[in-house]
Amino acid sequence: MDQELSKKLLCKIFKFKKATAQLSCRSDVSLNEVLAMVTVDSQNERSEKSLLAVQLGETLCITSSAVSQMLTSLEKKGFVYRDINASDKRQYRFMLTDEGRQVTQQMKDEIDRTMNRIILRFGEDKILEFMDMLDDFSEILTQIPNENENTLSK
């Protein structure tokens, strides 16, 4: 295997990760937190049902414990609050505060502007091709640990 190519790929992955982290136009809110607030907001607009940490985790592709930490952080910042679900006292409904809604809207607008600029620069065809490649790349990354486990168990 080409070690140099492997190093370059890893560098590009980290560079891409760093670049995507800059999509958050506020230093006190991570991109994951923005996505969580957008999800909470859209769920509450669509339904009176509680948004569970598990559901948020599935939507964002992160663990329930990561969701819990994120929501706690957002609560401390004053962007989210928990309301006990009237029909099931074991569950919390997460809601955006007025400040949280304002920050979410600002961030959505900024991210939309950025995405539109990127699409204009690359063109729709290249963006669609890139998204397909990202899907393929993600799929391979998720398969590799299972392949390693299967190799070890033989």
Structure write-up:
This protein is mainly α and 154 residues long. Helix content is 72%, strand content 6%. It is built from 6 helices and 2 strands. The chain has helices at residues 3-21, 31-46, 53-60, 64-76, 98-122, 124-153, and strands spanning 80-84, 92-96. It has a two-stranded antiparallel ribbon with strand order 1-2. Strand 1 (80-84) and strand 2 form a beta hairpin. Helix 2 (31-46) packs across helix 5 (98-122) and helix 3 (53-60) crosses helix 4. The chain starts with a helix and ends with a helix. The mean pLDDT is 84.
Radius of gyration: 19 Å
What is the string of SSEs from the N terminus onward? HHHHEEHH
Mean pLDDT: 84
Regions with pLDDT < 50 over 5+ consecutive residues?
Answer: none
> Residue share in helices?
over 70%
Quick one: overall form?
globular
Largest sheet: 2 strands, antiparallel
Count of runs of 4 or more consecutive helical residues: 6
Order of strands, main sheet, comes to: 1-2
Category by helix and strand content? mainly alpha
Strand content: 5-15%
Q: In angstroms, what separates the terminal alpha carbons?
A: 23 Å
- Count the strands? 2
